[in-house]
Amino acid sequence: EDQVTQSPEALRLQEGESSSLNCSYTVSGLRGLFWYRQDPGKGPEFLFTLYSAGEEKEKERLKATLTKKESFLHITAPKPEDSATYLCAVRVNFGNEKLTFGTGTRLTIIP
Amino acid sequence: DTEVTQTPKHLVMGMTNKKSLKCEQHMGHRAMYWYKQKAKKPPELMFVYSYEKLSINESVPSRFSPECPNSSLLNLHLHALQPEDSALYLCASSQDYSLFFGSGTQLSVL
User: Fold this and answer.
1) Which of B56, B88, B100 sits opposite A46 (nearest CB)?
2) Beta-strand relationship, B73-79 and B87-94
3) What are the phi and psi torsion angles at A101 (to 5°)?
4) Cβ separation of B50 and A97 shorter than 8 Å?
């Protein structure tokens, strides 16, 4: 069975304290890994799509990387406005429109 | 423009009511989705429409009835819901499998 596990479940950082969020996956054949940011009561906001091991993408203070078993979301010098839940999701097969989501990491940045 | 628009933003309904959730996208995306999300849980897929045809139904109870009138619009008709159906209902669209979500409808069933 395809599984996506995110860790830690919650993370509190001081403003400016860099860290990484982990998304590990066990799937039969990865056809895309997606990162989203979600604020309370809002829909997930698309951040990145990664397709192959070794791929990296950056956006402002965020950088996503992918290996054959996991993905990391690195956050550099975070600000309070980066506080949110970060979700990763995987697509297993081309032509399969279903995403399998992890349970998310709740990130809190303390001023 | 990567906007998916959902209405209403909030909805309170009784168990005997009939209501509809609406979703609209103008990005030309070929696939549209309904997800349900409970507090502190990840989104759960309900339905997928591809080229205006229902392609995935995740064994959702018949009190939820999706409709795709055209390539830009997606509706979710609600009837005889239960209190446990209270949740955030999310619409999404995609072209190349990167999903773009709307801001959701927060539904409370009394």
Assistant:
1) B100
2) unpaired
3) -95, 145
4) yes
Q: Residue A97: how many CA atoms within 13 Å on its side-chain side?
A: 25
C-beta of residue B88 within 8 angstroms of C-beta of residue B10? no
Chain A touched by B36 (CB under 8 Å):
no
| pLDDT tier for residue B79 given thresholds of 50, 70 and 90 | very high
CB A23 within 8 A of CB A36: no
Q: Do residue A97 and residue B97 have CB atoms under 8 angstroms apart?
A: yes
CB interface of B with A, residues 39-68, below 8 Å: 41-43, 45, 48, 50, 55-56
Phi-psi region at A109: left, alpha or beta (left = phi > 0; alpha = psi -120 to 50)? beta
Interval A27-67: pLDDT, tens: 877 889 999 999 999 999 999 999 999 999 999 999 999 99
